[in-house]
Design goal:
2 domains; Rossmann fold; two-stranded antiparallel sheet; Arc Repressor Mutant, subunit A; 7-stranded mixed sheet; 211 residues; alpha/beta
Length: 211
């Protein structure tokens, strides 16, 4: 992939879905698949699949299709799942607790190494074996440990101040679960997650069907 080639976020956001379906195909011991067969499984057009994968070099062969394991490994590299990233959670409430207990993160290369909170009752406890520290310990912890990603599950009124603190400590990626969309400049990668948006879309689709 050329360095000057800009890949759209729409394509990038489809890559994890390809990754999941290819993983399922490998579990079924399927060695190769055509774009038509893959499109039938994923419910997107074969043309879209070819266009998406051509952004990264194509990977297919005419008359053969795609080598499933090879394509899986290449998409894994593109998504960075062949690397390991260290993460911290800031906010040990219900969402922080749920994320700390989600084992699939570790399998995907994301290691949660610490949790931070302001609640004295939670500080010093462990969630899924991960220690909860006081927010005051953030500068010391990040100075002594490599932290790639900060996962923010703090109240909305605090998220901007916490995000500024996080970036001032040199952390370059934030996974933000607050209702506020964070925009912190080009040198910080931010992924804003709004679970309620997805739920409202589901509600709309139910209403449209008259349920």
């Amino acid at each position: 992939m050329g360095e000057d080639k800009k890949i759209s976020m729409a394509v990038i956001r489809r890559l994890p879905r390809y990754f999941r379906y290819l993983s399922d195909l490998m579990q079924l011991d399927i060695k190769r698949i055509s774009s038509k067969e893959l499109s039938e499984r994923m419910h997107i057009t074969a043309s879209q699949i070819r266009q998406d994968l051509n952004c990264f070099g194509g990977f297919g062969q005419q008359g053969y299709g795609y080598n499933v394991e090879y394509l899986y490994n290449e998409i894994s590299k593109i998504l960075g799942t062949d690397k390991r990233f260290t993460c911290i959670i800031v906010g040990a409430g219900n969402m922080g607790n749920a994320l700390a207990n989600y084992e699939n993160f570790r399998r995907r290369g994301f290691d949660i190494i610490a949790i931070f909170d302001v609640d004295e009752k939670k500080i010093g406890t462990k969630i899924n074996g991960i220690e909860v520290y006081s927010n005051d310990k953030l500068p010391e912890f990040t100075a002594n440990n490599k932290v790639d990603i900060a996962i923010l599950t703090v109240p909305n009124k605090k998220v901007i101040d916490v995000a500024k603190q996080i970036t001032s400590l040199g952390i370059k990626a934030i996974w933000n679960f607050s209702p506020t969309d964070l925009r912190l400049g080009d040198d910080v990668v931010v992924e804003n997650v709004h679970l309620s948006d997805s739920l409202m879309v589901l509600g709309y689709r139910l209403r449209e069907k008259g349920y």
